[in-house]
């Protein structure tokens, strides 16, 4: 994860350094044109899940998604990425509009939702904000911009009938002109959960909030792997619940909710900062960034 932080912010710095030349723009377009998009019903075998895409989204498998993340957006390779959803209305070739939903799966075990109704998300937000502020000294020491967790862009919501959870955070990075939207979906299954994560500018909140509701509706575990298929006598149970998915599962295991954003340095997942470079890196390729 440390490499992801370094790469992300290196790209931010590069994007702000000046315009990319025509060769860079041409290379980016050639990469995008070579991607193999899929549509319709998509089987994500590694997650025991199916995506029933409507006409507004296309899918990139793990190999093609990694090309976007690594070759186009500059993130290091990550074997956890199972694919990517790309909105038709926000093509990768348009750096001002582009965004995508990165898909991964965690097989930690069946996540209990017994704490969903009792969790105080306002109190949790305050703890996360405090942890973020406390972590800034270490971020600065490591050479990364300071970050402020401004608040919930969309307050956490859990639908017990469908076992689906979503929320969004508003982030402000030191030196950034625009606040960042970090939108998260967790679809709970029998033996783990599916993660669908998107990052964009806060000015895209209403659009992405609407689009991500479509993503929620299109995503389902396969028969026999759904949340309701859980067998308490045979299946593994995760060591955390709904609240931990919002605050960070690994932090929950360690009892360190307030230190979440410090622990992100050690995470293997993309989490928040891994995607912050997306917009900047695409602008780098297309030469639209300004110092």
Walk me through the structure.
This protein is α+β, with helices and mostly antiparallel strands. The chain has one domain. The chain is 35% helix and 27% strand. It has helices at residues 2-17, 22-34, 62-72, 121-142, 205-218, 242-247, 249-254, 260-263, 277-286, and strands spanning 41-44, 49-52, 57-61, 81-87, 101-106, 110-112, 147-159, 164-173, 180-188, 193-201, 219-221, 237-241. The strands form three sheets. The protein has a seven-stranded antiparallel beta sheet with strand order 3-4-5-10-9-8-7, with helices on both faces. A three-stranded antiparallel beta sheet has the order 1-2-11. Strand 9 (180-188) and strand 10 form a beta hairpin. The protein is globular. The two termini are 27 Å apart. 42% of the residues are buried.
Helix-strand pattern: HHEEEHEEEHEEEEHEEHHHH
Instruction: Please summarize the sheet with the most strands.
Output: 7 strands, antiparallel
The gross shape turns out to be globular
* Uncertain segments: 1-20, 249-291
- Alpha-beta content class: alpha+beta
Strand order of the largest sheet: 3-4-5-10-9-8-7
């Amino acid at each position: 994860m440390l490499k992801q932080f370094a790469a992300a912010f290196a790209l931010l710095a590069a994007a702000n350094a000046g315009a990319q030349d025509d060769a860079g723009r041409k290379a980016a377009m050639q990469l995008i044109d070579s991607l193999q998009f899929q549509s319709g019903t998509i089987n994500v075998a590694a997650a025991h899940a199916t995506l029933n895409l409507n006409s507004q989204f296309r899918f990139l498998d793990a190999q093609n998604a990694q090309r976007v993340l690594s070759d186009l957006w500059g993130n290091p390779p990550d074997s956890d990425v199972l694919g990517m959803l790309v909105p038709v209305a926000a093509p990768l070739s348009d750096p001002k509009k582009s965004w995508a939903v990165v898909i991964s799966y965690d097989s930690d075990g069946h996540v209990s939702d017994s704490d969903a109704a009792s969790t105080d998300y306002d109190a949790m937000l305050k703890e996360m904000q405090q942890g973020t502020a406390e972590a800034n000294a270490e971020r600065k020491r490591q050479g990364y911009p300071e970050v402020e967790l401004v608040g919930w862009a969309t307050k956490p919501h859990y639908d017990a009938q469908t076992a689906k959870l979503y929320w969004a955070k508003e982030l402000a990075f030191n030196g950034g002109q625009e606040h960042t939207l970090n939108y998260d979906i967790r679809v709970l299954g029998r033996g783990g959960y599916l993660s669908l994560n998107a990052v964009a500018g806060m000015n895209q909140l209403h659009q992405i909030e609407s689009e991500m509701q479509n993503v929620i509706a299109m995503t389902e575990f396969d028969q026999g792997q759904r949340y309701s298929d859980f067998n308490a006598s045979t299946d593994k149970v995760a060591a955390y619940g709904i609240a931990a998915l919002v605050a960070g599962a690994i932090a929950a295991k360690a009892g360190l909710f307030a230190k979440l954003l410090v622990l992100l340095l050690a995470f293997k997942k993309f989490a928040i900062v891994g995607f912050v470079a997306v917009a900047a890196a695409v602008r780098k390729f297309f030469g639209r960034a300004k110092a």
